[in-house]
Amino acid sequence: MNGVLVIDKPEGKTSFDVVAEARRALRVKKAGHTGTLDPMATGVLPVCLGTATRLVPFLTEGDKEYVAEVRLGAATDTQDRTGKVIAEAPVGELPRERLLETLERFHGELEQVPPMYSAVRVDGKRLYELARKGVEVERAARRVVVHEIELLALEAPLLSIRVRCSKGTYVRTLAH
Predict the structure, then answer these.
(1) Which is nearest to 38 in space by CA: 119, 114, 110?
(2) What percent of the chain is modeled with pLDDT above 90?
(3) What does the alpha-carbon distance between residue 77 and residue 91 come to, in Å, rounded to a whole number?
(4) Which long-range contacts (CB under 8 A, 24 or more apart) does 125-134 make?
(5) Phi, psi of 52 (to 5 degrees)
(6) Per residue in 39-62, is it b (16+ CB within 10 Å) or e — as a string?
(7) CB 122 within 8 A of CB 130
């Protein structure tokens, strides 16, 4: 079987899990996804099957769009809600204009360091494997582009944003 499946990745599964399930269910040997989504993320995960795996390099180049919920006043070791809270601060009053000005600072080209809890490889090892062992390594900053960042809702301490960005952008790192 050859083609591209558009799968709605459920929360709690890794992108690898989703590909493995598709491979088993469809009895195909060759399958791959077009970009890792965090295990807690939900959304569109294109999976290429058979000879369509040749399309992966082309499908990964496009911009991505995410909707994220951000909890203000808390930082975790994983930069997401699954991590251990390592810092907290009172949120206080959030004037909408000030929040919009702050979001605008993330618009454009940015240098972003991938989080330790990510699928990025350093010396052949996934960063999340090292992080789980308590090992932190230096990571090179990467150039990413945030084309659009929009405030969708604010109910302090939670805010909802929509981000359209280049590949390799970690929205949780923007929030961190």
Answers:
(1) 119
(2) 89
(3) 19
(4) 131/78
(5) -70, -10
(6) bebeeebbbbbeebbeebeeeeee
(7) yes
Rounded to the nearest angstrom, the gap between the alpha carbon of residue 83 and the centroid of all alpha carbons in its chain is 15
Closest CA to 78 of 116, 33, 129: 116
Give the Cα separation of 120 and 165 in Å (integer). Answer: 18
The whole-model pTM stands at: 0.87
Residue with tokens 């600072």: 105
Amino acid at 27: R
- Is residue 38 flagged as an active site residue? yes
- Per-residue H/E/C for 144-172: EEEEEEEEEEEECCEEEEEEEECCCCCHH
Half-sphere exposure of 154 (CA within 13 A, CB side): 14
Question: 53: phi > 0 → left, psi -120 to 50 → alpha, else beta; which?
Answer: alpha
Which of 17, 38, 77, 123 is the catalytic position? 38
Contacts 24+ apart (CB under 8 A), 25-34: 26/1, 27/1, 28/1, 32/56, 34/59, 34/60
Question: What pLDDT was estimated at residue 103?
Answer: 96
Q: Give the type of residue at 158.
A: L
Mean confidence (pLDDT) of the chain: 94
CB neighbours of residue 98 within 10 Å: 10
